[in-house]
């Protein structure tokens, strides 16, 4: 394994971790908006 390969693997792990944290952030943001506006999800 060359240095470049190791750098790419590290980059991929960071990318995966970032992508996996996005749904949690989006969900949290949506919950905050819903709680803030007091609009039920079924009211769309």
Largest sheet geometry = none
Question: How far is the N terminus from the C terminus?
Answer: 53 Å
| Net shape | rod-shaped
What is the H/E string?
A: H
Strand content: under 5%
Helix content: over 70%
What is the average per-residue confidence, as pLDDT, rounded to a whole number? 78
Oligomer: single chain
Topology, pairings included?
Blueprint: H1 3-37
What key phrases describe this protein's structure?
single chain; 44 residues; mainly alpha
Structure notes:
It contains one helix and no strands. It has one helix spanning about 5-35. About 80% of the residues lie in helices and about 0% in strands. It has about 45 residues and is mainly α.
Describe, in short, the structure shown.
The protein is mainly alpha-helical. The chain has one helix and no strands.
């Amino acid at each position: 394994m060359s240095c470049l390969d190791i750098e790419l693997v590290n980059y991929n792990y960071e990318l995966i971790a970032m992508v996996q944290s996005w749904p949690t952030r989006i969900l949290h943001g949506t919950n905050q908006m819903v709680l803030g506006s007091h609009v039920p999800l079924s009211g769309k």
